[in-house]
Specification:
14 strands; 7-stranded mixed beta sheet; binds biotin; 32% helix; alpha+beta; SH3 type barrels; BirA Bifunctional Protein, domain 2; Arc Repressor Mutant, subunit A; 10 helices; 26% strand; 5-stranded antiparallel beta sheet
Length: 329
């Protein structure tokens, strides 16, 4: 086994049981020596894990650090999940920029970059994405699908679905998708997605899907933002451990990505429509200088918004900023 996988594997075993686990037993299960287990436990302790060692009984996990450390996420991921390898940074300019740099030098499909803080976080339409350090999930996934350019947009939609599923199952919340790339909770923005890609000829070389999810952002900070924003903490009244949540999102993204690549687009579109905040509502869509009003009727196979205008014609919209006329500022 590659040495770098051991921390996640040892942590996985410690998370499984409620009591102690002997170094001998873990070494047997992992196909390594007791000394390698002891060294790995030492490495985990140095990262802030509290692991008790009792004579003859072995090791017991007492507490984990709150950071989104690779071992913490990988210990909770299935073997074929997206999110491997996972790189963790205390600070970056932007996970999307770093993911692009790494993708250009050969980072594999499924790699994930997570930052505790970004100094130049990027949103859509050249906007900035601001988040207080160590409060949010800020990550970018590198995907290398064999796709024509027209299909890339579907990946954006797929990640919004993964976020909704994970938030529903993991946190018991009911988020909704605001096309094209926002996840809303109680009428306020909870997460944004920035999908960027590099192509060669007419096919995609790699796609970077960046996600900013407000997890433990305080209400007082949300109130300072330009746009009405929400966080899991503000909505639920308590903090959330970000690493298990990221693992859940990556697991859902893996299931959805496999469906997408298998061509199950209709199933995905049905779920996307069910989770859409806009469907059947009157909206305004701004694209540069152009402003359109109409009823959101559905989504095209490539992920575009289908808008019914006043004369009953259906317009297909690929880009734009949507406002809901009913309640959004
Ligand atoms: C938007 O709603 O405008 C999209 C926001 C996307 C923000 C995330 S944070 C992690 C990743 N890195 C970035 O620089 N941006 C995305």
């Amino acid at each position: 086994m590659a040495g770098s996988q051991l921390p996640a594997k040892v942590l996985g075993l410690l998370l499984e049981g409620s009591g102690h686990r002997s170094g001998q037993e873990m070494a047997g299960l992992l196909g390594c020596t007791r000394a390698a287990v002891a060294k790995t436990v030492g490495g985990l302790r140095a990262q802030g894990f509290e692991i008790e060692a009792a004579p003859r009984r072995g090791y017991c996990l007492v507490s984990e650090p709150h950071l989104v450390l690779p071992a913490r996420v990988e210990a909770r991921l299935g073997p074929d999940s997206l999110g491997r390898p996972l790189y963790h940074f205390d600070q970056l300019d932007s996970t999307n920029l770093e993911a692009r740099r790494r993708a250009e030098t050969g980072a594999p499909h499924g790699a994930c970059l997570v930052a505790e803080h970004q100094s130049a976080g990027r949103g859509r339409l050249e906007r900035r994405w601001l988040a207080p350090p160590q409060t949010c999930l800020l990550f970018s996934l590198i995907l290398r699908p064999r796709l024509s350019l027209g299909r890339v947009f579907g990946l954006n939609n797929l990640i919004s679905l993964a976020l909704c599923r994970a938030l529903e199952e993991h946190c018991g919340l009911q988020p909704a998708i605001k096309w094209p790339n926002d996840v809303y909770l109680e009428g306020k923005k909870l997460a944004g997605i920035l999908t960027e890609f590099t192509s060669r000829a007419e096919t995609v070389d790699h796609v970077v899907v960046g996600v900013g999810l407000n997890v433990n952002v305080e209400q007082s900070h949300l109130a300072d933002l330009d746009q009405a924003a929400n966080s899991l903490k503000a909505a639920s009244g308590h903090s959330w451990d970000r690493a298990p949540l990221l693992a859940h999102i990556l697991e859902e993204a893996t299931l959805l990505y496999d469906q997408f690549i298998a061509g199950l687009h209709q199933e995905l579109r049905t779920e996307y429509e069910r989770r859409s905040l806009l469907l059947g509502l009157k909206v305004t869509v701004r694209e540069g200088e152009q402003v359109r009003e109409g009823l959101a009727r559905g989504f095209a196979p490539d992920g575009a918004l289908l808008l019914e205008d006043k004369s009953g014609d259906i317009i297909t919209i690929h880009h734009g900023d949507v406002s809901l006329l009913a309640w959004e500022k």
